Structure formats: structure tokens, C-alpha cells
Amino acid sequence: MKLILTSIRSLIRHQYLFREFVVRNIKSRFVGSMGGNLWVVLNPLATILAYLFIFSVVLRVSVSAAENGTSNFTIYFLSGFFPWFMFAESLSISVMVLLENKDLITKVAFPVELLPAGVVLSTFIVNGIGMLCFLVFMVAVGFFHWTWVFLIYLVIVQFLFTWGLSNLVAALCVFIRDMKELLAIILMVWFYATPIVYPVSLLPDTYRALMGFNPMWNYIALYRDIILKHQVDGLIALKAGILALLVYIVGTWFFMRSKNAFADVL
């Protein structure tokens, strides 16, 4: 627990440096582009329009409104896609963050735990704008409801869950250089194992029962319940919060326990 508290204190004590890491990560995404930060809004808008065209005009896929809160497959898909993308991109970038900053880590004494934390926060900010664009679209088509206030809690616990895993994969990648490729495979399998592009009702009963052990399905289900059905399952929300806290503790403990060896291995 002392290591966990040390990590949190580092963020508070070095908040200026942490803020600089976050700003640098955001700016680096669009450096040299003519559109600049405008792409933060244009990318999600293009995503929404593209999937609207594909699933409404070309494929014309629909889902059960009684089960999923909407019969529009595009809305059903995007309500799970944006939360997943915040999570998956955070891990994909975090896994290499220590290797990409090895010169800084080996030559300058600073709290290394700021690096994965900065990646996760910057990714959530950038993709959170995409999520906001989607929510504005949902307001426009009449889905707004007061239950959306629970999205604040959901984003916080998902952030904590993602932060813990990002700490874990970033630390592991220092010692296991194949971690980037392994993580890409894990995320691909995890994506299709999570009912994002298909309703959970299509799964056989045996596999449907296993969804309770898929942490990202808990988050995706909560997002869809809040946004589409305007309801909150208190038990799932509590499980998601406890899981996020446990994953954060384990991931951060491993990172802080290993960080003294980073400079030697890198």
C-alpha cells in the first residue's frame, strides 16, 4: 500500500511535470498536420458518419430495441466502440512508453510513474472528445436522460482500471520486449470476445454466462444501460468499481516494485 500511495503522491507533487507530459502527448498526435487539434473533433465525427452509412445504408443491420434500448445498430455499436477505444488505445500506447523514453529514464532522475499515467489521461481526453461528439449526436436524436450523470462515475472507474493495466503492461514491456505484439493479439481477441459488434443475446448460454468474467463487458454494458436504456445496474456498477480499484492496486504495485530496475534493463 505504501508503493500505491507513493505513486499518487508523485502525481500530486509533480503535477506541473505531469501536466507537461499530458500536453506533450496530445500535441504529438497532431504535430505537423494542417488541421492541428481540429482533428480531435473531425476524427470522431467521421467515424460516426462512416458507421451510419455502413450500417444504415449498406448493410442495414438492426438489433432488438426491447433488449438493447435501440433498434439502430450504428447507435448500439458506437455506444460500445468509443468506450472500448479509450481503453484499448491507452494500453497500446502505454506498453511502449518506457522504451520510447529510455534516454530520459536512464539520464534524468524523475518519477517514471508519470509516463503511463500521462498516456492514459491524454488518451482519455482525446477520445473523450470523441465520446462527447457521440453524446451530442445522441442528444440530437432524442436519447438524453438524467441518468447520464452516472457516466461521470463510469468514466472515472474505467480510467482507474485502464491506468492499472497500463502500469502493468508498461512495466512488463521493459523485461519482455515482445509485450507489444502480445498485447496487440490480446486486445484483438478481447475486442471480439466482448459484445461490441454483436448483441450478447447471440451468444450461446454457456458463453453468455462467461461474460461476467469479462471486465470490459461490465463497462460496455453499463455505458449502454445508461445511454440507451436510461438505467443503472447498481450491482454491476459496484463490481466495476471494485474491479477497477483492485486492478489499479495490482498494476501500480508491480510498476512501483519494478521501477528501480528500469534504468539497468533499458
Question: Can you lay out the helices and strands and say which pair or pack?
Answer:
Elements: H1 2-13, H2 15-30, H3 39-58, H4 65-68, H5 73-94, H6 97-100, H7 102-107, H8 114-140, H9 151-175, H10 179-193, H11 205-210, H12 215-229, H13 234-258, H14 262-265
Helix pairs in contact: 1-13, 2-8, 3-5, 3-8, 5-8, 5-9, 5-10, 5-12, 8-9, 9-13, 12-13
**Number of helix segments?**
14
Strand content: under 5%
Low-confidence stretches: none
Globally, the shape reads globular
Report how far apart the termini are: 26 Å
Q: Provide the succession of SSEs.
A: HHHHHHHHHHHHHH
| Strands, count | 0
Structural class: mainly alpha
Give a quick account of the main beta sheet: strands, pairing sense, barrel closure: none
Could you tell me the radius of gyration in angstroms? 19 Å
The pLDDT mean sits at 87
Q: What number of domains?
A: 1
Name the helicity range: over 70%
